[in-house]
Request: fold
Amino acid sequence: MAQMNMLQAVNDALMTAMSEDERVMVFGEDVGHFGGVFRATSHLQEKFGRDRVFNTPLVEQGIIGFANGLASQGSIAVAEIQFGDYIFPAFDQIVNESAKWRYRSGGQFSVGSLTIRTPYGGGIAGGLYHSQSPEAYFAHTPGMKIVTPRNPYQAKGLLLAAIRDDNPVLFMEPKRIYRASVGDVPEEDYELPLGKAEVVKEGTDVTLLAWGAQMEIMEKAAVRAEKEGISCEVVDLRSILPWDAETVCASVEKTGRLVVSHEAPQTAGFAAEVAAKVQERCFLYLESPIARVCGLDTPFPLAHEKEYMPDELKVYEAIKRTMNF
Amino acid sequence: MKTRNHLSNVGVVNQVNVIENGLLDIPMLQILAPDGSVLEGAKEPNLDKETALKIFHTMQFIRVLDERMVAAQRQGRISFYLASTGEEAASAASAAALSFDDMIMSQYREQAALAYRGYTTEQFMNQMFSNEKEPNKGRQMPIHYGAKELIFMTISSPLGTQIPQAAGYAYGQKMAGNDALTICYFGEGAASEGDFHAGLNMAAVLNCPTIFFCRNNGYAISTPADEQFKGDGIASRGIGYGIKTIRVDGNDALAIYAATEEARKIALAEKCPVLIEAMSYRLAAHSTSDDPTGYRSKEEEAQWKEKDPIARMANWLVSKGWLDLDTNGKEVEAMRQDVLTELKRVEKVPVCPIDDLVTDVYSEVPWHLEEQLEELKAHIKKYPEHYPKTAGRIK
Reply:
């Protein structure tokens, strides 16, 4: 075990994957010698050479187009989009190409060896264009997997699983806790399962569901609620697509209440999908309406970031409303 | 760390220097005159009789197929078709200059390249009738072919997406040490897409052995080239991106063969992309959903019919003593019969069972798709008469 922050864990996963298989290539804007604007790809070029770790021109649609072609050829492509906010020029390549490659060819061809890494999320004074959480756009795209880790241990295990999974994966890294989240990470190779949620803390009164950086908020809100005698079960969804309805519903059947939270705007955010599925499966178990604690339906603000964020207090209030319904 | 000076190759002037005529005069390679004679000063490519006839027969087959399938669409037998009439040489002769190991990533009007690789009449029909024998499982509209065994990537409708992909595929071939490259076909309209610029720039910067083959056929549906871009074509873009570029007469099979052969040699030896711009004309409508009489004149079309690539190559083959027109007439008739027979036979083949609706979305069918499929099957069973294509086969 070693103490690592999330960036080090991501870097360690990339080192592991690249050492193990020479077909793995890592590329994107500034990822080469410089090691990426967050340093997630530090020292990779030194170790594996410029042919396998390289800068690309500044063109997201080109990066993902190139990555699609590279993956379809049989190489293992790990492409970085520098910020989740800048993934949209590549939207067509992801939605119409990566996601549909296998289906449209009847399984003759695929880009299963593609992983797209991108930092996402707010809380860093990034304003409109360095703060967004775009998971819901891609959750509407059959063929993609979407994964996000909550801490360094999860980051390494999930990223290794994503790189080796035989489907294109969008791996969203919570950049607010890139350095803040520190924990024990095994130095050896390990994977954590995709498509599986994890019950982080058991409880009996209410289920709190989130993913990525929002998990930290949920855990804090749970501590606050427990001081008032409310027993919270905290669940990390980990994979947004396909998502683990079974684990979530089992928890809701036990607690009878659900609070879902994400930073992305509320309307048509992924919490809406969760709420729809949970009421469909657990209708007779629900003691109160499913609560959503989300970003407002505005562009991501700067001066009012603190007010915008679905913080611990907002989650805490939602828990109480749910309990007192 | 390397010290770089991005001004090192930039000269200096002391007056405001407006570049008014920056467009290069890029001539196109021509080997055959319209009468099929070899132009003075031109050199015939090293093309043996067998290859030459294979190119020719492929072009003829595609013309027959195109005519027949446009008619089949008019009769309501297939939903859509897209002919390549007048442009057969561009894809057949370029495919002939490739190695079989080279990946072909095409747009949607390169059926001649696919036929040259060995795609059979039956395979064409299976795809167009979206039936269960089709390896793409009937999931895409007619003409979106794909054949792994022929190293021909499945076509997608969005324009130009294959351009940066071809750079990536070729990069992978280079890294794997393959003696093979990727050819990427597209039209002059698609060259306005962002993916074209992204792909060419990436291929140039990352040294990808890719042949970018642009069929400049004068029209993107109804939009003529002069409303698509300034200048005389796409070739200048290649030069702007630092890519070796060849412009060629797209109706001259010999010139296309020679250009592609040279491009392939350069791309593999120097590990770099090459752009070929083939100047041609889309004699066909854009697709069966299009009617060109609304945007161009019969006179214009007639001028281009004179430049028919098939007639031109036929004249050359006859002059070489490699083609007998009477015999060839019978060969073309046999092609027509073959197309007709396969069409009638294949249109009776059923579509894939309903279970294939949810396969290949992921490597394995996830829980939510299993759930949705079961619900759908139960529904179809309840109303089988509404879903005749699949109801009978649900267990």
Summary: Residues 354-391 of chain B form one domain. The radius of gyration of chain B is 23 Å.
